[in-house]
Task: inverse folding
């Protein structure tokens, strides 16, 4: 019985991943001199990743503010799914003020650093 649940969950995750859709996001955050691009990827039916890519390394405070605005914008589109935001310069992840990620947790209806 337990293995059936695990297999079902794996199938749902895999089927969602195969159809992952990526789109640009307007975060309505002030650019503050450091250009960035925000993209959202739908990872199945229960979560989204919000990737903010900067052209050069911003201050930690600036990166945090922009990622927070982007996660809020992504969550506003669909409050029934989780959204996990991260900041990047090229292919390197950068830390935010209180952790590596900022997330909207749909089940708890709250935002938090992770």
Result:
């Amino acid at each position: 019985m337990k293995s059936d649940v695990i297999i079902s969950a794996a199938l749902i995750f895999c089927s969602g991943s195969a159809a992952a859709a990526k789109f640009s996001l307007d975060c309505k955050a002030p650019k503050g001199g450091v250009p960035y691009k925000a993209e959202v990827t739908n990872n199945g039916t229960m979560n989204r990743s919000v990737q903010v890519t900067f052209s050069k390394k911003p201050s930690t405070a600036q990166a945090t503010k922009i990622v927070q605005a982007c996660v809020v914008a992504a969550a506003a589109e669909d409050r029934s799914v989780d959204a996990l935001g991260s900041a990047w310069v090229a292919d390197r992840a950068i830390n935010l003020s209180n952790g590596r990620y900022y997330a909207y947790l749909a089940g708890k209806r709250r935002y938090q650093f992770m």
Summary: Residues 2-113 form one domain. DSSP finds two helices and seven strands in the chain.
